[in-house]
């Protein structure tokens, strides 16, 4: 897989030889302090987890294994930021997370609201796995170890390849990119790493790997995968001008809070980003799967529906439900059942 660097000067993260920093001033630590966060976690009464078990969600493994038509654009949301994309004859998986908990230990930490709708062993053959950053809710070591055995190409931001090699991914299968660098899946299919406003780290480390959003540019369709990002209007404008508008835009809407307003969009800022990227169908990610914030678990999608207005075509499938993007907006309302 070859890659090249875009020539136009654009927003860049900085690297001091040890850690990466965002292109704009960004606060990761909560302004009110961690003691205030602990009090909120203990005493605020929002329904952060479903009170009753959610229904069993199942993807159609047989349908997903069928050959992908050359001009198809389909998406199957498997929970949080994990999406199986079928785009222009290829299958691309984003931020694969199958473990029960997104934590250093499977004995404690945020637990899934529902089982993965597609078992990892039932995944069809993939053309690429795209990673946005190395946080536990986006990079699942157990899933990576399984996928490594398939020989699938991995595309990731700078530094994340160290994790992948440790978990068994062959070096030849890893392409690490800086913002605005691109890699060719094939002669007519380009993957571009683009800016995001976030941070990285597993355990006690922080920012020793880069974070990114991604543009997937096929011969017929273009998809934007935002990964995790806070408000970053100039970056989204630059991405939209360079590669938009997109046939499908995937942006995070959950795990937002004023205490970490710089690093997560939330529904309202996601709609701003969506407009700067060029609009089009919006598939919201990063919600409804894990308890990672203080808001009620349904709040992100409820607020998105309130704020979106008729001009934003929303794709709101149930987990595991395959969406044909060309079919138009979809509102499964699964969170109300």
TrEMBL record:
<dbReference type="InterPro" id="IPR001279">
    <property type="entry name" value="Metallo-B-lactamas"/>
</dbReference>
<protein>
    <submittedName>
        <fullName>MBL fold metallo-hydrolase</fullName>
    </submittedName>
</protein>
<dbReference type="InterPro" id="IPR036866">
    <property type="entry name" value="RibonucZ/Hydroxyglut_hydro"/>
</dbReference>
<feature type="domain" description="Metallo-beta-lactamase">
    <location>
        <begin position="90"/>
        <end position="287"/>
    </location>
</feature>
<dbReference type="GO" id="GO:0005737">
    <property type="term" value="C:cytoplasm"/>
</dbReference>
<dbReference type="Pfam" id="PF12706">
    <property type="entry name" value="Lactamase_B_2"/>
</dbReference>
